[in-house]
Amino acid sequence: MNPAPAVQLTGVSKSYALPDAEPIQVLSGVDFTIESGEKASLIGPSGTGKSTLLALIAGLLEPDSGIVEIDGTPLTSRSEHERAGVRARTIGIALQSDNLIPFLSARENVELALGFGGEVARRRAPAAARELLEQFGVGHRADHLPRHLSGGEAQRVALAVATANHPAVLLADEVVGQLDAETAEHVIDTVLAVDVAVLYVTHDAALADRVSTRYEITDHQVRLR
Ligand SMILES: Nc1ncnc2c1ncn2[C@@H]1O[C@H](COP(=O)(O)OP(=O)(O)O)[C@@H](O)[C@H]1O
Ligand SMILES: [Mg+2]
Fold this sequence. Notes:
Elements: E1 7-18, E2 21-34, E3 39-43, H1 50-57, E4 65-70, E5 73-74, H2 80-90, E6 91-94, H3 106-114, H4 119-135, H5 151-164, E7 169-173, H6 181-193, E8 197-201, H7 205-208, E9 213-218, E10 221-224
Parallel strand pairs: 3-8, 3-9, 6-7, 7-8
Antiparallel strand pairs: 1-2, 1-4, 4-5, 9-10
Helix pairs in contact: 3-4, 3-5, 4-5
The chain binds adenosine-5'-diphosphate and magnesium ion (MG).
Magnesium ion binds at residues 50-51, 173.
């Protein structure tokens, strides 16, 4: 039997309500699938709904209508609490603004993400965390607090955190924007080498084209390009 798709959106629409104006329609009847282990990029002008799409997939936002399923499990019509549980188990997310815990070192941030896997995993966590940081080229920053990292280093630590728990899908929202071209390429290639489905957002066509499944958002729809 084929594994369930990592991500499946069926007829998903999302608008934002505004106090004194018509709501902003961002996505309209989107059908979108990422197969288990598939790597895909998403590009498009600012304001087209890329971050909204990722937030819907992550269950951070609820669609107005339609169904979001992750790894065969519907997120829609679950409580906030249940969605948080599914998110912790199956989704790795690295956002534009990094989401590190400010009073933990880079290594401890990754360890915390690894720590959900039981006692053995916990004992191995410091070494495993350091390895992951090294893969993303920030092993030398393992003992630093997030505020002592450059923007680009913090983004790479956030990616190590997001991949730590072996999610069904890794979502990355413009996480290499603060890196030089060569480092950005290396970081994206590291993300793509992880054995999970990946959807990454970038402004950079060359980076988007490092995978063969390429999406863009136009006219409120997610389309192959
Ligand atoms: N919380 C919000 N309230 C109202 N409008 C929003 C909100 N978040 C995003 N938007 C609007 O939705 C549209 C899509 O935003 P976003 O998903 O952030 O686009 P992108 O990531 O492609 O730049 C934009 O017009 C943006 O202004
Ligand atoms: Mg965005």
